[in-house]
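Please check this one:

***
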Amino acid sequence: MGNWLRFNAVGLAGIAVQLAALKVFHDFLGLHYLWATALAVEAAVIHNFYWHRRWTWVERQCPGTRFLRFQWTTGVVSILGNLFGMRVMAGFLGIPLLPANLLTIALLYVFNWLAADRYVFRLR
C-alpha cells in the first residue's frame, strides 16, 4: 500500500508539472496545443521517473535500463494517449486545454500504475 500512496503523491506532482508546462508551452510560447501537450507530458514523465526511482520504489534496485523501460511504457503510452485524448476532447469537443488534459491523465492512470509497478520497477 505504501508504494501506491507514494505513486499517487508523485503522480499529483507530475500532474502539476504537466499542466504548468502545457500552459507555458501553449499560452506563453505559442506552440500548437498538440506540440505543447507532447512536450508537457515528456516533462512530467521525466519528473515522475526521477521521483519514483528516488522515493516510490527506492527499495527496489534500479539499473540504468529502467529509464528506457519507463520511456517505452509510461512515456510512449502517456504521450500517445494524451495526444489522442487532447485531439478528441480539446480539438473535436472544444473542452478547454487544462480540463481536457486532466481527463486524459485520469484515463491513463491505471495503465501507468501497472506498467511502473509490475514492469519498470518490478522486484527481481
